[in-house]
From TrEMBL:
Name used for this protein in its record: Interleukin-1 receptor antagonist protein
Job description of the protein: Anti-inflammatory antagonist of interleukin-1 family of proinflammatory cytokines such as interleukin-1beta/IL1B and interleukin-1alpha/IL1A. Protects from immune dysregulation and uncontrolled systemic inflammation triggered by IL1 for a range of innate stimulatory agents such as pathogens.
Localization: Secreted
Gene name tied to this protein: LOC113414466
Organism: Notechis scutatus (mainland tiger snake)
Main location as per UniProt: secreted
Length: 184
């Protein structure tokens, strides 16, 4: 029970992250950049499905059992956007970032893309397609991630196992609330 009392709600985790990584020096200053590391989190949806990597380019929601390899998610603040909205970059270390795109047919979707989350952070640019507004949603134990590029679209999981993690709007059959645990 002692560990439960120490657990922070998502908004507290983000305030701590933004405070720790407040830009103190000019962008590109090497002495601060060398000390930076993303925070690592494990996420699972309200149906207890964890994030797993399928192949090199698909993030899926898998049952939390011995056959699933959980994927930790790296998180860094996007200080180029309004800080009070808690805009973050999310990625899979060491070289994959989560991107929001729109297909030629107009469908909004999530895409894993080769790239360095530290590069996004250090540029101090908006990078809306790589940014999510994060917030405590529902109770202090859950959070949601809204695409900065596509307002109203949230990181989501299907009610079915082993389906890709995507983007959906509130009120649909998809899960948009996530539990979290900070690993580092």
């Amino acid at each position: 029970m002692a560990g439960k009392a120490e657990k922070k709600i998502w908004d507290e985790e983000m305030r701590s992250l933004f405070k720790q990584l407040e830009p103190e020096l000019k962008p590109g200053d090497m002495c601060i950049a060398s000390e930076l590391r993303p925070r690592l989190f494990r996420f699972w949806d309200i149906s207890q499905k964890i994030f797993s990597l399928m192949g090199d380019d698909m993030l899926v929601a898998s049952p939390n059992d011995s056959n699933s390899t959980e994927q930790l998610i790296a998180v860094l603040p996007n200080n180029a956007l309004e800080v009070r909205k808690q805009a973050i970059f999310m990625g899979i270390q060491p070289n994959t970032v989560i991107n929001c795109v729109q297909t030629e047919e107009g469908q909004v979707q999530l895409q894993l893309m080769s790239g360095d989350i530290m590069y996004l952070y250090k540029q101090n640019e908006k990078f809306l397609n790589f940014s999510f507004y994060s917030k405590t949603d529902g109770s202090g134990d859950t959070c949601s991630f809204e695409s900065a590029q596509f307002p109203g679209w949230f990181l989501s999981t299907s009610s079915e196992a082993h389906k890709p993690i995507g983007l959906s709007q509130k009120g649909g059959p998809e899960n948009i609330l996530f539990h979290f645990q900070r690993i580092y």
